[in-house]
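Q: what does this look like with glutamine bound?
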Amino acid sequence: MCRHLAWLGAPRSVSSLVLDPPCGLLRQSYAPRRQKRGLLNADGWGVGLYGPAGEVARWRSARPLWSDASFASIAPLLSSGAVLAAVRSATVGMPPDETAAAPFTDGRWLLSHNGKVSRAALPPSPAAESTCDSAILAAHVFDAGPDDVVATLRAVAAADPDAYLNVLMTDGAQIVGVTWGDELSYLVEPDGVVVASEPWDDDPRWVEVPDRHLIRVTSAGVTVTDLELT
Ligand code: GLN
């Protein structure tokens, strides 16, 4: 499984969110601490963020995050109040190029999928950015409406009961995350909230979101709901 992270709050630099934390995504690209499947996440990475007018911008790469020296030099200059980033461990048979790296977007939402789903369980979508399972899943979530993400995932799981469907997404004003085969953790900071596959440090304030839960972060706070109750 890949690893992903989202930030919502006051603007922070991409380097402070992705590169600097001692056990953050950079470290998770070669030494994740809580990853259940796969030893490292070296098959590309990506980050998406929102500009002042709500415009979406992405930097994605097929290279390991640790080797992207040019990005590391500009990351301190990129700041946003809503950021979503992921490092990738490609599922066997999926394309290796950067178009298969999360986050995917419909121009408004950014979405990262950690896991795998049989492409036979996903009807083709012309809107998919890649033939990667995660890109097709993202297109279905966007098509159905991100508010209905749980219903979309349930339909996919009905077609592929072995699917891992961990999803993290943002529209710049909220973060929505679903655990389906893995966990998430979140940390409430004075200036915002970070949601991540695994804590980026050993701060005891990190809170775990168990498997099969929905987390929603808005300016009003954090809610976590058991999927059984949605
Ligand atoms: N299936 C997706 C891919 O191939 C995600 C893989 C993962 O979560 N490790 O990129």
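The helical segments are 14-19, 25-30, 69-74, 133-144, 149-159. The chain has a mean pLDDT of 96.
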